[in-house]
Amino acid sequence: MQFSQFELAAIAIAIDDEVLEKRSETTKRRWGVHPTWRKREAEGEFALLYKELIDDESKFYGYFRMSKECFTFLLEKVKPDLTKKITRFQKPISPIERLAVCTRFLATGDSFKTISYSFRLGHSTVTEIVHSTCRSIVKRFKKDVIPEPTEEMWRKIAEDFEKLRGFPNCIGALDGKHFVIEAPANSGSIYFNYKHTFSIVLLALVDACYKFIAVDVGAYGRNSDGGIFAQCNLGKRLENGTLHVPIGKNLPGSSTFAPYVIVGDEAFPLKTYLMRPYPGHQATGDANKTNFNHRLSLARRLVENAFGILTQRFRIFQRRMKLAPENVDYIILSTCVLHNFLCKQKDYTGLINHSTQNAQPHLLNPLSVLPGRPANDAFAVRETFKEYLASTAGRNFIGQQYQE
């Protein structure tokens, strides 16, 4: 049997219509909200558990990784951003439940799907809640808890390092932290790091009380800490002298003047404002250089301890994050903000110890050097600290820290 072209075209159209009809039948949603999620207000994790947690401070802290007082204060700040309009179609999720979903996600590191089932919320809803809440936390708190340091703040940081950590004229400990992520699509090797994982880097400057002074989030995993520091806003402003850092003061118990400095490891360049240890082959057999490296290491490890506290409190960082890099950036930044907020609220028992000191204001003079080539002034500053720590005044200063 032969068909005309007109008949063949009619048959093809009929087949296509049948296929489309079957597809629509199989993909058509049977309900707007799944019956499981409709029970959220009665049987969801928040509805069942929160009312019991608020009467038990220790259980509340174990669940949210923060005290009830801090959670309530946090809620009041972000509430305007988390409040949604009521429509005739559905009742919006309350700000307190949205904050609970986000903080629980950060505290446990559970997947969006796991959070979805436990709170009886849609997967896409949980995703939106976490990302929007993290952005709100950064928006509402960052300027208050990670402000741009003033001259008075730098002096206070230096006094804390002097009194609590035994390193004079130090205004921060610097290091980078890799957060493992799932390889982004079409990203090549830019996120692939020396540990053979894909990561985003947090570069942080930390004070003597484990608080973040400055952070840079979002660098590619393949970049070195020193390279990230040279390109980030913190490194550029320290280099050109626009970060309001006082020029320095005499070292304790002596007439030796030294600038205020940051301490870092071998990944960073030696600058007049950034001290790194002596290379191993130079320190071998030299007691003074070995002593300097030891004192610098004790001060520098504060930033590693801060990273440890961050990953212990927010266990999302203990596993690979399957999120887009721009969303990971905000999650990391929001946890840094929450970390400082909790420190400010003294939610780290025994870790916070504040002290103050007044001094004359001066600015750090900029120093122009070739990349990776320390200037003679930088060598001289390190020698000054080395000789002081090995002197009688330096030993007496260190001895006073142990007595205290």
Automatic annotation (TrEMBL):
Signal peptide: none annotated. Its cofactor is a divalent metal cation. Residues 174-340 form the DDE Tnp4 domain. One of its GO terms (cellular component) is nucleus. Keywords: Hydrolase, Metal-binding, Nuclease, Nucleus. It comes from the Eukaryota. One of its GO terms (molecular function) is hydrolase activity. It is found in: Nucleus. Its main location: nucleus. Pfam families: DDE_Tnp_4 (PF13359). Belongs to the HARBI1 family. This is DDE Tnp4 domain-containing protein.
